[in-house]
Amino acid sequence: MSVEVEPNPQRRGRAERFLATLAPFREVVFVSHVNPDPDALASMLGLKALIESKQPGKPITLTMDGMIARAENQAMVDLIPIHLVPVDQAAITPETAVVMVDTQPHTGRRASEAARPQVVLDHHETGGLLEGVLFRDIRPQMGATSTIVTGYLLESNVPVTGRLATALLYGIESEVAGFPREAGPTDDGALVWLFPRADKDLLAQIKNPKLPQSHFATVQHSLANAFVYGNLIVSFCGHVTQPDIIAEMADFFIRFEKVEWVVCLGLCDGVLKLSMRVNHLGGHAGELLRDVLEGLGTAGGHDKRAGGAIPIPNERPETIDPLLKTIRQRLLDELGIPRDQGRRLLEASPMLPSL
Ligand SMILES: [Mn+2]
Fold it and tell me: No. of H helices and E strands in the chain?
């Protein structure tokens, strides 16, 4: 005698529950955070493959909030390739399921909250407003949202192409870069599974894009305006043409052997943007930056890495200078560093007439 066992909804896999949530909707629109990073892009791409395999024929749109900032990210979009629609051009109707990846509603990481999601997948500690969300998979112990998505593809036996494996591998790798790594065994398991499937030449091409002159100009400006206070570097990157370079400079300065903390600041599109790094675990960078920016702007992030933004009315020195001073003083107070310890990282280098 065979016994029919009713499937227990609690015991269904996450991918299955994700798909069941989308089933009644006619189409799917993916949204993510402003200036999407490789983790956000790869997560959307991976979930698209899952839906195409299990709910074929359903229209799927991948959107972009803000811009593709880093040259590596642009290379990824061009070479994988990934077709993106500006988020404000995506039509959202009652028949649309909005799937949000790598961020949560109302965390200050999106230009607009107009698109309210039915589904949220994220690995950030920055909690958002999840009212009305039908399915959520939020796991801050994961190094990347792409790790969660790789798990869904495995669970559902969806074929992963070389290009998708490349995207997911880079999505995870770029999130868990640096030492010590903010990654767990699940992230490493996903990397091990993806590596033989990824196109290594394509990956190398994405990781080594050509850079515009503005990149080198920002490096020069940041080096010239880097100040060391005890075990902290604060650098003002000036006006930048793409906002991710502020985080790139923070990754650059954190390798200075005399410091454990970095804060880089830069101006872009009416916003003073900040990027913080700490080179040990337990730094609670996200919380610290939130305290520093209290009443000024928004901030959030991970243990070792955080970002923040302050809207500014203009870029005039009388607006910017007092703001920079306030932030610096609050930072020094939070980190218990005396205010009178500052010195330049570098003295100005002599300029040769020509070479
Ligand atoms: Mn992420």
Answer: 11, 13
